[in-house]
Amino acid sequence: MGPFVLSLLGSPLGGVVLLLVGLFLAGWGARALSDRRRDGRLGKLVAVDAGSPVLLRSDRYRLQGRPDVLRRTSDGTVVPVEVKSRRSPRGGPSYSHLVQVWAYCLLVEETTGRTPPFGILRYADGEFRVRWDDPARKELLALREEVARPYDGRANPSPERCARCRWVEVCDVRARG
Fold first, then answer.
1. Which of 61, 67, 92, 101 can bridge 130 by disulfide, Cβ–Cβ 3.0-4.6 Å?
2. What is the span of the domain harbouring residue 92?
C-alpha cells in the first residue's frame, strides 16, 4: 500500500471511508443474493443470450427470436425472460416490450410444445410478469398479421423525414427528393 493509503487508514477520515466501503460491499452482496434467490424462484436456467444464444423459430408464424434468458419452472415449463438495462417506465412496461415478451412466449410454445403461463420483463429496478393468455395471443397475432400486410400508404414521407429515418434503405415508400 502507498503512504497516502496508510496515512488515511490511521486517521478518523480513514475509518469513515472504510465504513462506507464496507457498507457499499455489504449492500452489493445483499442485492446479489436477493437477485439469485429471485432467479431461483423462476426456475432452472436453460439458456442465456450470451456467446451462443438459443434461436427460437416458428415456421408457422414466420417468427424467430433470441430471448435474453430461458428458465425452466418446477413443472418443466420454459419461461422467457427479457432483460432491459433501463429503469422501468413510470406507467408500466411499454407496449413494444410487452409485444416482444408475447412473441417470445409464442416461440417457446411453438418450440417446446408447452404454453408458458407468462414471460418476465426485467428492468434494472424491477420486473413484471407478462401474462401469456388468449387475449395476449390474439393481440400478438393480429399485430403480426397487420405488419405482414403490404404497405397501405398511410405515411407522409418527405425527403427530410426519410433522410433521418433508420429504415430508409429497406422502406418501400422512400421519398427521395
1. 101
2. 44-132
